[in-house]
TrEMBL record:
It is an enzyme of class 1 (oxidoreductase). Belongs to the steroid 5-alpha reductase family. Its EC number is 1.3.1.93. It is a multi-pass membrane protein. One of its GO terms (cellular component) is endoplasmic reticulum membrane. One of its GO terms (molecular function) is very-long-chain enoyl-CoA reductase activity. Residues 28-73 form the TECR-like N-terminal domain. This is very-long-chain enoyl-CoA reductase. The chain crosses the membrane at residues 253-282. Residues 151-308 form the 3-oxo-5-alpha-steroid 4-dehydrogenase C-terminal domain.
Length: 308
């Protein structure tokens, strides 16, 4: 039974100061990096696997849990990533913000605007669309998504949630449900923003984008067996043109709301969200091409068909 030496990357992890560094572990011949993490966690339960980042000494790149120790010739180093929180919990916290904020501002205008607001058809449509969007996201988080990484650092929850709670939550709701968008407002009354035909057309476009987004999420789910991090080349609806059609259809849904309202808050959320999703899409696109090589379709773009 071979042994492996694990040192601390930088200062000894505060949560694992009970361990004598470097730590020598006796592991089976076919042991992996995941087994190293499990062995360290067994010696110090507070230093659980998700908190650990293991790399070759003097190299910052994390080793995958499936990497065999036989393929790693150098001494290992472990870094404490800090307290972790599951990605599923992160998503649920992010999306619940707008689900609370929008009803509060919509139904309690006296508190936020100092008086009543006679809601226009536009406000009613946007209210329903925003709530349905984030309710869909919560349902997908619980029943559809399968995560390649189980957790992320707890401290990041505040940064991640701010995007949704502040931009698509507080700022969007305060702008769209305000008196300038109400039924008596000249911005609404007698314009296409109060025309049921116009509103229904945009609602249909929004519904198409939302259902298309759901379809892509179901496709991605089907590629990853439960409890694994397996990756495969996705094909079919949307994926024949771009690597991340889920992001493309999400953008389309928010474009509808932005065009419907013309709100500065909707434009801001759309621009910021599109920029962030573009970065994610490009990263995933490059990862697909690197992992699958010539098997990956050459004609695909990252996020926007034929463009990007």
């Amino acid at each position: 039974m071979p042994s492996v030496t694990v040192n601390s990357a930088g200062r000894s992890p505060a949560v694992a100061r009970g361990l004598a560094w470097p730590v020598t572990l006796d592991l089976p011949e076919d042991a992996t990096i995941g087994d190293v993490k499990s062995a360290l966690a067994k010696r110090c339960p507070k230093f659980y696997k998700e908190r650990q980042k293991i790399s070759v000494k003097d190299d910052r790149k994390a080793l995958d849990d499936a990497t065999r120790l036989a393929d790693v010739s150098s001494e290992l180093a472990v870094k404490d990533l800090g307290p972790q929180i599951s990605w599923r919990t992160v998503f649920m916290i992010e999306y619940v913000g707008p689900l609370i904020i929008h009803p509060l501002i919509y139904n309690l205008p006296r508190i936020f605007y100092g008086g009543p607001v006679q809601h226009s058809r536009l406000q009613q449509y946007v209210y329903a669309m925003v709530l349905l969007h984030f309710l869909k996201r919560e349902i997908e988080t619980v029943f559809v998504h399968r995560f390649s990484h189980a957790t992320m650092p707890f401290r990041n929850i505040f940064k991640n949630s701010a995007h949704y709670h502040l931009l698509s939550g507080l700022l969007l709701a305060y702008s769209v449900y305000s008196p300038p968008f109400s039924a008596p407002s000249p911005y609404i009354r007698g314009t296409v923003r109060d025309d049921p035909t116009w509103l229904n057309a945009y609602a249909a476009a929004w519904l198409f984008a939302e259902l298309s987004n759901l379809h892509t999420h179901l496709t991605l789910r089907s590629l990853r067996p439960e409890g694994t991090t397996k990756r495969a080349v996705p094909y079919g609806y949307g994926f024949d043109l771009v690597s991340c059609p889920n992001y493309f259809f999400e953008i389309c849904a928010w474009v509808v709301i932005t065009l419907m309202t013309g709100s500065y808050a909707a434009w801001l959320f759309l621009v910021v969200g599109t920029g962030q999703m573009a970065l994610w899409a490009l990263k995933k696109h490059k990862a697909y091409k690197k992992e699958f090589g010539t098997e990956y379709p050459k004609g695909r773009k990252a996020m926007i068909p034929y463009i990007f």
